[in-house]
Amino acid sequence: MATPDYAQQGFTAMRVELDAGVAIATLTRSKERNTFTGPLVKDLLHAFDLFDRDDRVRVVVLTAEPNAPAFCSGADLSQGWGGLFSPEVDKEGEHAHRDSGGVVSMAIFRCRKITIVAVNGHAVGVGVTGLQLPFDIRFAWAGAKLAFPFVRRGIAPEAASSYLLPKLLGHSRALSLFLTGATVSPDSPLLAGLYHSILPTREEVFPAALALAKDLAANTSQTAVAVTKALVWRGYDNIEEQHILDSRGIRILGKAGDAAEGARAFKERRLPKFSDQLSDDVLTPWMPWWREVNVHHRKAKL
Amino acid sequence: MATPDYAQQGFTAMRVELDAGVAIATLTRSKERNTFTGPLVKDLLHAFDLFDRDDRVRVVVLTAEPNAPAFCSGADLSQGWGGLFSPEVDKEGEHAHRDSGGVVSMAIFRCRKITIVAVNGHAVGVGVTGLQLPFDIRFAWAGAKLAFPFVRRGIAPEAASSYLLPKLLGHSRALSLFLTGATVSPDSPLLAGLYHSILPTREEVFPAALALAKDLAANTSQTAVAVTKALVWRGYDNIEEQHILDSRGIRILGKAGDAAEGARAFKERRLPKFSDQLSDDVLTPWMPWWREVNVHHRKAKL
Amino acid sequence: MATPDYAQQGFTAMRVELDAGVAIATLTRSKERNTFTGPLVKDLLHAFDLFDRDDRVRVVVLTAEPNAPAFCSGADLSQGWGGLFSPEVDKEGEHAHRDSGGVVSMAIFRCRKITIVAVNGHAVGVGVTGLQLPFDIRFAWAGAKLAFPFVRRGIAPEAASSYLLPKLLGHSRALSLFLTGATVSPDSPLLAGLYHSILPTREEVFPAALALAKDLAANTSQTAVAVTKALVWRGYDNIEEQHILDSRGIRILGKAGDAAEGARAFKERRLPKFSDQLSDDVLTPWMPWWREVNVHHRKAKL
User: Of which family is this protein a member (chains A, B, C) (predicted)?
Assistant: First the structure.
């Protein structure tokens, strides 16, 4: 792909910068508490599609302005839930609806780069589910209030959170959080394991995330990262098949440039300089090995 | 269904009261340490079947009398394990046996309401597995001794605990507990995440559980709860299919009464008053979406 | 099988002793930091095959000499990754490679006895994955440095660790560890739940593991252990099928000698003396109930 200019993408709900292999996306609708509205959805889908395909991007960090009253205060309920359902989609039948939180979750989840979220403010509903759970690594402000209000508002957890949260934290914690409609802080025992790091002040969250992001952008292999993510999320359900699968990964990566450079750097006691890129198509004959599910509704109309 | 009178159900091993949407089941065979015997199994199956179908029940709390010497001391081994196997069932062949702990686990697990267990005493074997793991939320007394003695008694974990415990806590903790035949207290690192709350005294356990139960009975949607539990336990094994599934849930719930009331209450900054009920059959065209497995043995005899 | 003499097996990278039902395997290439080389792989495969089949072995403990500079410092990178790929296997085509870490993981994972690893030194790469994750129970020295360096060396996690780590600790911790290429100590929150016990000094690790091992060798049922491990790892993906499965386990074990002895010992308030052995074939008509996957590459050459 051509190298996109992130300042020229027409984003209206966030801004994106590229810094030393790190794509930094900052939510900018602080006044509206970064509610999860159509323009934000559109920006996130567009941005994560670019991040996935742009070889220059090795790590993504999503954050909000640290003085925003909220990292993301969830869906905009000023129109009730009706705002969720578009008349156009409804015309296609009752199976056509796709939850917008989930559409965003898919885009983040499918990004083959390392994704980090820096939660430097309060978060509610989809601000916890769609904007946190699909990321690889989560940083949070210790003072953030995190709300899972679904059952207290008459709906169920969305954005594929009923898939992600049990896998991230186990079913016991996930059920406690979902069924009590809990509001908790990041250091709650119910969230143990969810955050890579919890920082005392809002201002420290993004710099800490960025420091890790820059380390990883400089010192990790883009192809090894993509394989690792896929092995963890798209693996098989018995150990023998996973052994055959990761053997194939070791064979393909082990004969490619980054592995040679990794071994050389280790022997020479220096940091590596990785140059393999996803667009080189080293992985293409192998990935995806999994059944790809099309999430789009098939329109009945010809 | 008609509204059952819980005082007239002929329970002999426990008593059941209904209080503000909360069904409270209290084990009453304190003198016998609430051993897991036939009458208790019968009572539990009958009670959880009613709780599942009685619209008035929004939350269930199971507990024991706090002065009982044990919450549940497990199977009654006075007859050895032989008491487990009925001659009638044995006549049907060696595949006909159904573990009674598991039969109870199924009844609790399948209850579509929020289920809470208040473990205010020691628990052994099925008192930990069948009477705790299938619940959504667990409270415990810090001083409770919890024993997983299976491999030390020549049998294996039952009551579907080999399914539930790894999902609740991860395989590492589950294997440590099962294979060491451990006796631990609720604050053991091996149990981290299992209990929603751990209370210092036996007397505090049930009131704490009841307070949460009453909050949830008053402020959560019965239909949203049923969908949430099903999404978590009956979801799909890849994220895209779960996204399609929870989108359907959002579509169905989002157009129903409770979601409208939830949004109204939020805007009006008041507590919601949910009125949708499972018997309204809003969810019936959709649930169960999963393959229902018949656990009963098919008798060969015509 | 005949009873093997562990002193006469020709091990070159470790020594094995049998002590009161506990097979103790000690890595002996301290000078080479117990790197994961061909001779070690060969020894481990041979030893765990014997441990699985030798009725005298009830528990296995793997450890290193406590004064070794490392428990296992991972793959030997002196030849780069090229050393991983044998020309013979490469001739069979690019699907023939089997990761040697994974080959060892399979042998440990398939051992039907209780397996314990006593990590009394630093561990890197396969020294963390293949030599720790497939065990049932892990002990560690608090000062051990544990490194998951894969993405920093241009390869992906191997030895089926992308299967095991998410199941052991959840996907959140697994992704943080894998994608940051972390080096952590056993008490890192990222590893919470991985270690059964963490000891302050290197010298305490093996004795603590051995004490538990001897307790378990004396007081657990060999057949109950084998069923427990299989129920946890080879169970079904819905609770009803698991209930039918563990009911069968209870039926088979409950009518065998060890269960009778377990109940008698409980009633007589004494320790049990279990005598059922895997070679008695009580479990053979039932196990394996799961689909067995052949991990060997099928040679095209006739």
Answer: Belongs to the enoyl-CoA hydratase/isomerase family.
